[in-house]
Specification:
Length: about 400
């Protein structure tokens, strides 16, 4: 049936559109490159519709979509869809897709098997590629074989799909880093290295001994995923922590790569303790999950607009997350340029070696000297850690 009206509305991923008729929603439009293009796309899809104030039931649908794209628990299965012009096979595909929970994914092949037609994965992909009800029918939760993102017809392609999955706490088999697959630091390492060298001859000698800047950002798909992993890893060896975190992830096999907040909140204490979590870490993970769902933890978009201290203040409200953990998040997950974790033992040990101090310097002394490394104290910190390793080496620089 033709659409009677449409409206634009703001979301965490941009300005979306929705069109409706007498039987329910007839289409949802993801953001184009600009509002003008989104509007033009809506008018092309629904030429008989007028831009008007949505009726109450559509306003409720908008509110649910906006909440979902903020990372909140928001069910969209009660939104009425007008399927009059949708082919029967497509309807069956959309019915299965609507049952995929937030934070979880299926592959095209898995949907085909659930339909009882295991050889129809390609047809499933074609049906989802023509999905008129984006978000409400969550085609972004359907991946290619092996958990790869695969194609996505919306503006931005796979990057948009990754972003939507990241907001929901889902992971994919090919998402390289926290923000939409971006792999670069929030600064130019070559420029930073030159500036730090010029600012401090003593640290320059360490740089010469260590060689190129090889710090790497650690891959993750969501803020919750990164912080939950950090909590598990606290005060454990890397091998032991990896084993425990792997067991926690294994509790939720449909959550590709790791649990979302709702998984942690649904799991029993016995299940989480059985994976190897201490009582303190169990409580910390539950607090992180609750605060994430309650929007006390910044979303991906919000983090990009916040300075370092504001992020630290928000993250340290979570049980079990202190300043050091927040600083590691800033450095190794977000790639922030100017972080100097002065309470870190390795930083102070490396400082003592680089500047020929007999005793471990107080944090205040490291902080004061580090003023000369601004705005690239992250790079300087990485070299101080390497200096601490040199201090332990039988062949010192």
């Amino acid at each position: 049936m033709p659409a009677q009206g449409f409206a634009l509305f703001d979301t965490e991923i941009g300005r979306c559109g929705i069109a409706w008729g007498a039987r329910g929603v007839v289409g949802v439009q993801l953001p184009e490159a600009s509002q003008t293009e989104t509007l033009a796309r809506l008018r092309k899809r629904f030429p008989a519709a007028r831009e008007v104030t949505p009726p109450r039931e559509v306003q409720r649908a908008l509110a649910s979509i906006v909440a979902l794209l903020r990372g909140e628990a928001s069910a969209l299965d009660s939104i009425a869809l007008d399927l009059t012009d949708v082919p029967p096979f497509h309807r069956r595909v959309y019915e299965v897709a609507r049952k995929i929970p937030k934070g979880e994914t299926l592959t095209y092949g898995e949907i085909a098997r659930r339909l009882g037609e295991p050889g129809s994965a390609r047809a499933v992909g074609q049906a989802l590629g023509r999905n008129p009800f984006a978000i409400v029918v969550p085609c972004h939760r359907v991946l290619a074989a092996g958990g790869k993102v695969g194609g996505f017809s919306a503006n931005g392609g796979a990057a948009t799909k990754r972003r939507m999955l990241a907001i929901e706490g889902a992971r994919t088999g090919d998402a390289p880093t926290l923000f939409d697959g971006a792999s670069a630091f929030a600064f130019d390492p070559v420029l930073a290295l030159a500036q730090v060298r010029a600012s401090d001859p003593a640290l320059a000698r360490v740089i010469d001994a260590v060689g190129p800047f090889r710090m790497e950002l650690k891959a993750t798909a969501s803020v919750f995923g990164a912080l939950s992993e950090a909590i598990v890893y606290q005060q454990l060896s890397g091998k032991a922590a990896a084993t425990i975190f792997g067991r926690v992830c294994a509790l939720f096999p449909r959550a590709r790569g790791g649990p979302a907040p709702q998984h942690i909140l649904r799991a029993s204490d016995e299940e989480l303790r059985g994976a190897g979590l201490s009582r303190a870490k169990l409580l910390a993970l539950r607090d992180l999950a609750e605060k994430t769902q309650g929007r006390a933890i910044p979303s991906l978009a919000e983090l990009g607009r916040m300075d370092d201290e504001a992020i630290i203040e928000r993250l340290t409200e979570v049980r079990g997350i202190g300043r050091w953990t927040a600083e590691m998040f800033l450095m190794f997950r977000l790639g922030r340029p100017d972080v100097l974790p002065v309470d870190d033992y390795g930083i102070r040990k490396g400082f003592a070696f680089a500047f020929k101090k007999r005793a471990l310097p107080p944090a205040a002394a490291v902080e004061k000297h580090g003023e000369r490394w601004k705005p690239y104290r992250t790079l300087a910190s990485w070299y101080l850690w390497r200096a601490a390793e040199l201090a332990q080496s039988p062949r010192r620089a």
